[in-house]
Structure formats: C-alpha cells, structure tokens
What does this fold into?
Amino acid sequence: MTTAPILELVDVSAGYGAFRALFGVSFAVPAGTAVAIVGPNGAGKTTVARVCSGLVQPTSGRVLVDGDDVTGAATHQVARRGVAHAPEGRSVFATLSVEENLTLSFRQAFGRTGTGDGLARAYELFPRLGERRRQLAGSLSGGEQRMLTLARVLVLEPRLLVADELSLGLAPIVTEDVYRTLGRVRAAGTALLIVEQHLDHALAIADEVVVLDRGEVGFVGPAHELGDRAASFLSAHEETV
Amino acid sequence: MSEAQALLEAERITKRFAGISALEEVTVEVHRGELVGLIGPNGAGKTTLFDCLSGKLRPDEGDVRFDGRSLVGLPVHRRARLGLARTFQRIELFSGMNVRDQLLVAERARHGGGSFLRDAVGLSRPTADEIERCDRMLDLLGLTPDADRPIESLSLGRGRLVELGRALMTEPKLLFLDEPSSGLDRRETHDMGTVLQAVQERSHTAILLVEHDVPMVQRLATRLYVLDAGHLIASGPTREVLDDPAVRAAYLGVGV
Amino acid sequence: MIEILELAVRGVPTGCVFALLAVGLVLTYKTSGVFNLAFGAQAYVSAVVFYEVRKEHEWPLLPAALLAIVVIGPLLGLLLDRVLFRHLRTSGSVAKLVTSLGLLVAIPELVRLAFGSESKKNPPPLWYVERTDQWLWPEGSRFVLDAGQVTTILATLVVVAGLGVLFRSTALGLRMRAVVESPRMVELNGINAERVSMVSWMLSSFLAGLSGVLLAPLFASLSPFDFFTLLVAALAATAFGRLSSIPLTLLGGILLGVLQAILAGKLPTDSILANGLRPALPFVVLFALLLFWPGLRSARDAADPLAGVDPPPPPAAASIRTRFLTVGTRAFAVTVSAIGLLLGWFVLDSFWLGLVTSGVILGVIMLSITVITGMGGMISLCQATFAAIGAFTTARVVDSLGMSVIVAIFVGAVVAAAVGGLLALPVLRLEGVYLALATLAFALMFQSVMVPLDWVSGGTTPLRVPRPVIGPVDLAENRAFFVLAAALLALAGALVYVVKRGTTGRFLDALRGSEYAAASVGISATRAKVIAFSLSAGIAGLGGGLLACFYGAANYDQSFNFFYGLVWVVLVVTAGARSVQAAVISGLGFFLIPEFLQRLFEIPGRYVADHPDLPAAVEAVLRTIKPEYSLGVAFILFGFGALTYAKHPEGIIEVQTRAALRKVMGALDRTDRSQPTPATDDARPPDEDPAAPATDDDARRPAPVRTGGAGVP
Ligand SMILES: Nc1ncnc2c1ncn2[C@@H]1O[C@H](COP(=O)(O)OP(=O)(O)OP(=O)(O)O)[C@@H](O)[C@H]1O
Ligand SMILES: Nc1ncnc2c1ncn2[C@@H]1O[C@H](COP(=O)(O)OP(=O)(O)OP(=O)(O)O)[C@@H](O)[C@H]1O
Ligand SMILES: [Mg+2]
Ligand SMILES: [Mg+2]
It folds into this structure.
C-alpha cells in the first residue's frame, strides 16, 4: 500500500512524571487492519493506547495519524482526526444519564440531526442500554457501563478505534456480540487497535500482534506468526483453556 | 440441609431500584471452606447481591445469617470484623498510600479499632510482626517489587492483586470476589486461581466468586449459582449447571 | 390567613434576591465543580465598577451597565479560568473550594486597592427611576413592589428561563456538566474542554456581575462583606436545589424569602426566638436541609475515570529522607524552636512578643485544621467556632466556678471536643463540599443565635479571663505567658504528630482514599471521624481558651468571627495541611506578615520625607505605597497563597522541605561517591523499573521473541 498508515508510533517513549513506562515503542496500524496489543500486567499496553489518543504525551518519539505528526496535539484534536479511544475500565460520565453520555459524543460527531440516528444504532447494538436510557450511568452495572463505553466508539465508526481491555467485564455472550460488531465495523473501513486479555479472541480478529513487555516491543508481526514462532509464549496462556 | 450449618445463609433477598428489580427473592448458601461460583449476564444482580451481603446496600427484604448470627442491620465494618471480606468490581484502593500500607491498614483493622490512647502515647507504630505478615502476603501475590510504590502508579491488573491481598490480610472466613481476574491475562488468571486454591485449603476460607471468565470458574468452583435479571435460574454442581441449556442461552452463548 | 398570604407575597422579592445568587452558585458548581464562595466577591467587583462609572464618571445607564455586567463580569471569569481554575480542573471539589475561599479573601482587598477604600454610599440602581419607591405595582393594592424589586424578579425569571434552555436543549449545557466530571473524557469525544470551561466561567461570572449590580441598591453603601453575607444566606436555596436543579433552587430561594417574611411578621418582636431565629433562619434551614434533604446526604463527587493518566503525587518529604537526615531534620527543628524561645525571652520587645505569642497560640488553633483537613481530609469551616467555645467556656468556668484558669482552659478544650463530637455525628455522612457547608452553617448559627446571648458571651461586654499564677510564676508577665503558650503548642503538636502516625492516622488515610474499601476491611468511619472531629475541636478549644486568656477577654468579634475560620483554613491548606510545622508557621504568619508589610510600606513614605528634592513623578509613585495597605495586601497574599494549592496540594512548606531535602541528599551523595563510579548507562534506573513483575514469574516467562528487527511491520 502506498498510503500512510492511519496510526504510526515512531520510537515512542512515554511515562508518568519521573516514571518511564514506554521505551522506544514503534509500530503502525495500516488502514483497515486490526492490530492487537498483548502483554503482561503493567507492560504498558494502556499507556500505548493513551499515547495514541493524546491522553499521555510522549517524552520522545513521534505519533503520526494519517502521516501527519500529531505529537503534542491536544486530545480533542486527535479525536477529531478520527481516533476514537475507549479507555480501560468503566469510563462513563457517572452523573449523566445513558442517553446524555451518548448524546455528548454523537452531537459532536454527527451534528444535531444525526444524533437521534446514532442513539438508535447504539440501542440496537446493546438493547440493555435502550432499556436504561434515563438511568444515571454511574449506577449501571459494571458490564453495562462497559457496553456504554463501547457503544460510543462502535457507533462512531471512526477511522481508528482504540479499545483498551475490550471485553473486560462483559459476559461471554456479549463478548461474542461485540466481536461480531467489530468485524462489521472493520469491514466498513475502520482500523482497530485492541488491547485484550483474552488472547484467543484478540488473535482471531487481529492481522498483526504487538507484544509488549516492560515497556518495550517484544514482537511485532502477523498474528499467525506469533502462533508459530512463539509457541512457548502462547502455551503459557493456553494451558488453562 | 442435614449437614453442618452453612457459613452464610442468605434468604429471599430482594432489592429494587426505582422500578428496576435487581434481585428477586434470591437465596444462596455458602459452606465453610467452599468455593462457590456466581455467574450471570451483565446486570443480572451479582454485584448488587454482594453489596447486600456485605452491608453496602440494605436489601428491601430478606435475611442474611453468617456464622450462626443474623447480619441484618449491621454496618459494613462490623460485618468485616466478623470475617466477611470482599474485593470490588470497580477497583477500590486507598489512594495516597503505597502498596504495603494498604495491607498494613487491613492488618491493623483486623485487630479491631485501635485505641486512641495508644496513639496518643505513640505506641501504635507498625510492629515487626505486622510488617512481616504483610511482606509474606506481598510475596505470595508476586507484589514484592511494587511494595513501596504509590498505589496510583499501579496498572489495573496489579491493582487487582493488591486488592485481593488487602482482603486476605483480614483473614476472612468468607471472601467475596467480584471479577478478580478482569484485567489479568490468562496466565496471571491462572496464577491467581492457584493462590485462591492455596488460601482456601490452608485457611479454610470460603469463597464466593463472581466471574465472567468461564474457564476460571470451571477450574475453581465446585458449585455454581446463576443469576439472570435478578432471579436465580440455576444452581448445582459446576459441570451440570454449565451444561444447562437455559444457562447456555442466557449467559454463555454458542461459542463456549 | 389573608395576613399570612400578604406576608408571604412580601417575601417574594427577597426570595428572588436569594434565588438569583443561589442560581448563580449552582450554575458555577454544575459547570465548573467549584462551590464558589467567592461568587459574592465577584458580584462586588461589578457593583463597584458600576458605581464608579455611574457615580464618579457619570456615565449614562446603558453603557455603564454594559461595562459592569457584560464586559467586566465575563472578563473576570475569563481571568479566573485562565490563571486559576484551569489548573484545578482535575482536582477534587475540596481543592476547588479552598481556592474559592482564597479568592473570597483576596478579591475585596484588591478592589479596595484599585478603587480606594472610602465608602461607596447609595449605590446607583439598575433602572431608569430616580426614586426607588416611584413605581408601585399594582397601584393601590396592598402588595406593593418598587422598581428595584420588579427588576430583580424579572431578572431572576429571565436568568432561570435562560439557564433552563441552556441545560435542556443545547449541546453546550451538556458539555459543561460533562467537563466537571472528566475533562479528559470530554476531549476524547473531540470536544475542546478548555473552551467549554472557559465559557462556563464567563457565564457564571456574568451572572455574578448581574447580581452584583442588581442587588447593590439593597445596601446603604457597598461592602464586600454584605455581599458575602447575602450569599451565605442564599446557600440554603442551593441546598434545596441539591446543587444541581436550577428550578428547585429558584423555588428554594423564594420559599426562604417567604418563610423569612412570615417569621418576621408573626414572631413577637422582642422574644429570644425572634431575635435569635430570624437572622439565623437561613443557616438553620441550610443545616437542616444538609442533614435531611434526600439526595444530599449521600451525595458524592463522581471521580474522574481517567484520573489514572496523572502521575501520582510526589512522595512526602518525610518518606524520601534517609535515617540520618530524619535525625538531622529533627535536630534542626529543635534548634529552631530553641532559638525562637530564646529570642522571645531575651530579645523581643513587648510589642513583638505580643504578636509572636498570639501567633504561637493561633498555631495551636491551626493544628486543629491539620487534624481535620490534613488527616481527616474534611474541610471544616467552623474551627473558629470551636475556638470560641473553648474561650467562652474558659471564661465561664473561671467566672462562676472559680477554677484555676489553666484548668479552665483544659475544661474549655474538653467542652469544645464534646461539641465537636456531637456535631460530627449528624454531619459525618456528608462529603466534601456538603460537609464544608454544614460546618459553615453551624458556625453561622452559633454566631447569630448563641453569641448574642448573655450567658454565652456576656452580651455586649466581652467576658473577662484573668491571667493565672502558677506557683511562683505569674503569667501576667508576658514572657512567662509566651513560654506557656509555646509549651502548649509543643504539646498539641506532639499529640497531632503521634496520632497522625498512629492507627487513627492510618485509618483516616485509608478513609480518605476510599471510604467503602476502608469499611470493607473493618474500619469504622464513624469512629475515626468522630475522633478526628473531637480531637480537632478540642485542640481549637484549647487554643481559643489560651487566646482569650492572653488577651484578657473572650472577644468573639475580634478573635473568633467565623470569617477568620475561613481565612485560617486557607492559610493552613496553603502552607501544608498535613504537616505540623506548616500549622505553626501559618499561625505565626497570620500575625507577623501584616506587621512586616506595614514596616515595609513605611519605608517609601519615610524616604520621601527625608528626601524633599525627589523628582515629582518618583515622589508620587512612592506616595502611593501607604502603610495602611499592609493588612489588605497581607490578605491578598493569604488568598493568593491558596492559588498555589492548584500546583502543590501538599502545601508550600512541604514543597520547600522536599526541595531542600533533595538538595541536601544530592550534596551528600556527591560527597559519598568521592571516587567517580562508572555511570550506568541503563536507561532504567533500578527504582524506575516499569514493569518489574514477580520474580518467579520471570523464570517461567520466555524471553520475548523478536521478528525482523525493526518495529514497524
Ligand atoms: N498514573 C501513573 N503514574 C505512574 N505510573 C503509572 C501510572 N499509570 C501506569 N503506570 C505504570 O506504567 C506502567 C505501564 O502501565 P499500563 O497501565 O500501561 O500497563 P498495562 O499493560 O495496561 O497493564 P494492565 O494489563 O495491568 O492494565 C506500569 O508499570 C504502571 O505501574
Ligand atoms: N443505584 C441504582 N439505580 C438503578 N439501577 C441500579 C442501581 N444499581 C444497580 N442497578 C441496576 O441493577 C442491575 C443489577 O446490577 P449489578 O451491578 O448487580 O449487575 P451485575 O450482575 O454485577 O452485572 P455485571 O456483570 O455487569 O457487573 C443492573 O441492571 C443495574 O443497572
Ligand atoms: Mg491496562
Ligand atoms: Mg457486577
């Protein structure tokens, strides 16, 4: 492909205050592909996701979106370029209702006229949210909050969808659903950057895998190669399955 | 039941929130030293049940008995002192403290309130014994390298381990775990399972486990309860329950 | 019945005044998370500007109103957002509250500096009528409204309707609410959070300006204090609206006005009830609402879900230093205290000794704030009240029981502690801002109901408290009293120190971190907080008794006015709420800084007097610096001190200590390694190892596999 990848990290280091969490991380997400980031606790997966959306600024290195340097750009500017980030855990506005949470996002993305349509799609995706549209998001159950977070980014169909701990807290039946939707969204042209603990799910959808370990990239390559070359790595994960 | 009295008996717990019925006459029992799973789709009422049992929420109806006494009306901290510990689905740590201090506080709380007079004469620094116990727990969970880090700097997954350690420091008779493996990868989940089994065997701690990670539940739990939309839809030995078509339809979907 | 109705209607205009202010407060809280007690001060700014251009420069009404309300108001909001609140966007509501307290202290003094301190009589009205009683409506009826009242009612209604539209049907209203909870999540949605909160501030400041200009004619002359009092009276309406519903706030304000009018008309004029209850009504209502109004009792701040993006606060200085340095720091502290004592005893003249002694005693009261705010994480705005309770009790006990004064001071402390414990029980369940409001209501109730009573304060003549004689030492001698004060300060300081490091301190730390998690390991929040409240109130009572004894009388207005309580909180929090030495230093600073400033400001005047041949321009400039500004400037410094809180929530003293420690440790390090060690080129110093998983994990985990070298596929 001749076009620039949607997202590219070039030798990115980042951290929190004096603490360094990433050391020279480089990888790219070409248009229309799905990349999975895996790695143990504290490896820096969340930090990578935050760097991609501008929540954490790199201390060195560059972040490119569509070939343009967005290092140091404000989070909202990155978001306007079509990077939608669903942060880890339950990231909802607890004091706003379900509908207000979604409206906030859709009004910005679709304008006044498109909002209703967006809401309808979100409720179709997760009927539970439709039943609870007036409930304060803070009082939803853990999984329901996760649905709300995901509904937002899935409906937006952004250029790049960054999802951290994608299926965390979701019941198996919902996880299946979410992955089906992800497949659809991807077919419609959205590139995916997924952080996921459930390796089998992640590997099933991902074209490329980035293995992070202690803030460094340990492996980048096609998903099936990870299976071949690092059988030992995987086996540790599979022994319980 | 004919055998020894159950450690925890929750009878016909009902809880409603403004028109939403989160729990309808749910009855569960946990025996000493037993590891029981509680599963169900999102919004089924699992966390709400934990909240009712641990005292955070007051159920609209129902009775909870623990270790032979009724818990009705007891506040959270009193129940904790009786031997009920828990972790949280949305991780709750003491911000502003380092990792070891989280456990030290729990260790101190286990001994009761701590007297203000002892404080006033400067007699309540952590003893060598307390520190030693905390360090052993940190070691068990593989948290030793993080012991002196501020809690805010931990990643989600490691925070979960700290929370588990804190709950275990109180030497509970019954431990409620709300999705302890979320944020851990397969292998870390496996390690946590091993720790839980060790704790269960060594200290005869009963555990009620809420999880969406079915393999983990399968491996650890001997019995299961299944909640759906506030109703108990199945209960029994793990294998049987997981094979139940109603459970598969409500919870597991086709894949598993 | 008719009569009551008539009284009720009469209360509506006053009610609208309350409502206007309350709606402004609620709007600010909803859109910025700041419970802005400085709202009145902002109103005052616009009122003064309006006064100046209208009366001094005789501008026509319209341009004057436009300047004061539409220009100055939003401009001030813009300024506040830019220099201040944007840095506080992700801090908790308590931090924001303290900052607004700082503004409350600083702004009026700034205005006074800018526009002169002579009183501004008869503020001009915001309507085209010369005499305010001219426009009576409906004519001939028993219910008469003057032009001012009509304007107020109209303005209130327009404001409420406008805000209703804003929140119900615009994207902006939703965004404003969302920004308060998590600016970063708003940004993730592609919305510029900075811009949104800037607009919020401009809007709320515009409302402040409008209220200021509108309400100014209610007073005979403009004073920031009147605005603040009015604002405080309106707080009950904000509580009625649960700090979120604008229509309910309006209703609350009107009900409050009506209730007040009915009480005013119905209560016998000279009963205790009438004299005590009427002025206290808004505070009683506020207190009751906070305790009983459903939804307020358990109101919690929603935490920012993306708070994990911030690095953790730096470790406390005490935890980074080595053993050697700990000993060193302690030795340093002892030395400084000893030098202080010697200075006090041998060097200071009686004027300075008096100031220093006051400062030392205030240090004791400040320690009470260390306990409640630093250790307990709660903002209490009634510490001055506890001090007053200590002082009054001391006076009464000496007076009627003839007890030794020293014993009486401790009795005062115990009584204050008991009151503190009793107050703690009902207000315990409140959090953050709500707790602060409840304590403020308590302070105001005490001030307006209890203080005027003879048996409490002695009425108009303050109760006398004699200086005691202990054995051979006559404490009427100032130096002896200074030593006594220092000894009690040391005692209180030591107590706070050990409690902070003991079980109670740890439990309070845990509760601050997560109340529910603390309960889940068996910590009783009630117990810990009641202890904190009692200890804090007891220490404040001790300081209060001591202060009364030092001054010879328990004088409420001079020593314990609730406003001082606010200033003290600001001072302690600025200096560092978690450290004992910060409390001591802020106690001293409260008395010494204005005095130092005074000396400083006298210099130019003297210089001018000594040099008659100065150029006129220089002389004019020098003459603008007047010694009487010192108190105002000191308050501005105190107030702006709180603004550093945004950057350093741990306090200035702590930051300085840490910096000093780092320096010393760096120096020690260098001398340690006299031979140059080979510099480690490891990008990761050992204490910065990012992942550091458990060691046994390491063994089992195979080394990561690399394919192809370069990272980019
Ligand atoms: N706010 C913070 N301040 C300081 N250090 C932090 C902060 N957040 C994360 N860290 C540290 O940065 C490193 C990377 O954290 P990150 O959250 O990116 O890990 P992760 O791979 O997402 O882990 P997990 O699977 O547990 O979520 C960890 O060592 C973590 O302790
Ligand atoms: N305060 C509340 N007000 C209204 N509804 C509530 C409240 N708390 C919980 N609910 C609802 O009650 C239901 C049960 O919630 P609960 O948190 O117990 O679910 P859960 O089984 O733990 O689900 P999950 O697996 O997603 O965590 C949910 O539908 C939730 O929306
Ligand atoms: Mg993570
Ligand atoms: Mg749950």
User: Anything to note?
Assistant: Chain C touches chain A through 48 residues (CB under 8 Å). Confidence is low (pLDDT under 50) at residues 675-713 of chain C.
